[in-house]
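Aim 2, interim progress. The first record below pairs a target sequence with its C-alpha cells.
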Amino acid sequence: MRRLKFKGRTHPVLYVIGKNLMKKKITLSVLILLATLACAATPKQKTEKRLQSAAEVLQEIMNVPDKGIPMEVVEHAKCIAVIPHEIKAGLIVGVKHGKGVATCRTPNGWSAPAFFSITGGSWGLQIGVAGVDNVLMIMNQKGMDRLLSNKFQIGAEASAAAGPVGRHAAAGTDWKMDTEILSYSRSKGVFAGVTLDGAWVSPDEAAMLAFYGENTTHKDVLSGKVPPPPSARVFLAAVKSAEEQAKKES
C-alpha cells in the first residue's frame, strides 16, 4: 500500500496514528515483560511472598473490630497457621489445595515459620477460591504434636471445630476443652469459623527446601531449633503484634 505524502513528507494524521500505535505496542511489551518477570519468581521469593501475604491476612483480621478472632483464643494458642489465597495474573488459583505458613510457641518465643500444604476435605472447595483466607489456631499440646508430625487428617486424627468469633470468646463456650484446632475463614470481608473435617495437612517440602536449604525439617523449625531468618520477620512481627494485642484486651 502506497504511503500518503504531504508535501514530500508522511501525512501528519498518519504520522500521529503510527506514533500512537507504536506507544501502545511499547506499553503492551512492557506489561508482558513485567508479567513474565513476576511469573519467573524464584522458589525462595515465592516463600517470602507467602510470608508477606500471611502477615497481611493476620493483621487485617486482628484489626476488624468485634468480628475477628477472640483475644482469649489468640492468647492461649500453641501455634498459629495462616493460609492466604493466591492470585496469579489476576486469576485466583489453588482450588482444593492451599499453601500456608505456621509458627509455634517455644521457651524463647515464637518459632521460625514452617511451610505446609492443606488439601481435600469438605473445606477443600473453599481453599484459594474467591479470595478466601484461612487461619488455624492450634490450641493445645495434642494439636501442636499433630502439626509437628509428618502428615495428619483433620477430623480423623486431630479434633477441630469452627472457632468462636468476636473480640472476646463468649462465656460458656467450650473452645478451651479438648478441641485441638479452631479454624477460621475470611471471604470478601466476611469472617467466620469454618469446619475442616477431612482435610489433610502435610509439610510443604519444596518451600522448606527453598527457604531453609537442605537438612532442615519442619519439626526442627517449629520446635525452635532453627533461628528465624531475617525474611521471616514480617510474619513473626504480625504474630507477636496479635499476641500483644490479645494480652492488652483479654
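The second target in this work package is listed in the same format:
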Amino acid sequence: MRFVGVRGLRMPTRRTFLLAGVAGSAALVAAAWLRTTRVAPGGTGSAAPGGSSAGGTPRGGDGGFGAGGGLGGDTTVSSALTRLLEQDAARYKWVAATEGSEGAAPLELATGDAVMAIGGFNGTDPWPTLAVFKDLVARHEIHYYVGQGSQSFGGGRGSSAIAAWVAAHFKKQTVGGQTVYDLTRPLS
C-alpha cells in the first residue's frame, strides 16, 4: 500500500514513531512520579524521591525535591503556616494568594485548599490586575496574602503592584519564616 501525502510533506518514518514513543513513555513516568509527590504530615518534606516522608528536612540542601530544590527553591510549608491558612478556610474562595504557581502549589498541597497563583506560572502574567485583586479582597474571597522572599521565581509588574498595595494596607505577621498579610485586617 502506498501513502500519498501533501506536497512537500514527508510521511512519518519509523524513527519518528520511536522518538514519539520514548517521549510519551517519559511523560507517563514523570506524571506517575508527580502523582506520588505529597507534602508529608506536619507540612514538611516530601514522599517523593529526594524528600523525607517523616516530616523532617528534605534532602538536597535547599529544600524541595532533590538536589536542585525545584524551580522556586524551598517547597516545604511549616506546620504553623498550614494551621493559619486552614483557619476559617471554608469561608473563602482562596485561603491565600501568592506570587506564581511555584509559590501557590506547596500551600495548596499542605492545606488541601485553593490558593491563588498571582501572575500564573511564574508571576509574570497580567492576571489578576490590581483592580481585580482589590475587588476580590473587598468581597472577602481571599483570606491571606503570603509574601515571597528572595527565592521566589516570578515577579512581574502586576504581581509587584499587588504586593506593594497589600504591604501598604494590611497587617502582617511572620509565620513559619513567611511574611503573611491578613486581608481581613486593614492597617487603619
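The CA atoms of residues 126 and 149 lie 20 Å apart. This observation will shape the mutagenesis plan for the next reporting period.
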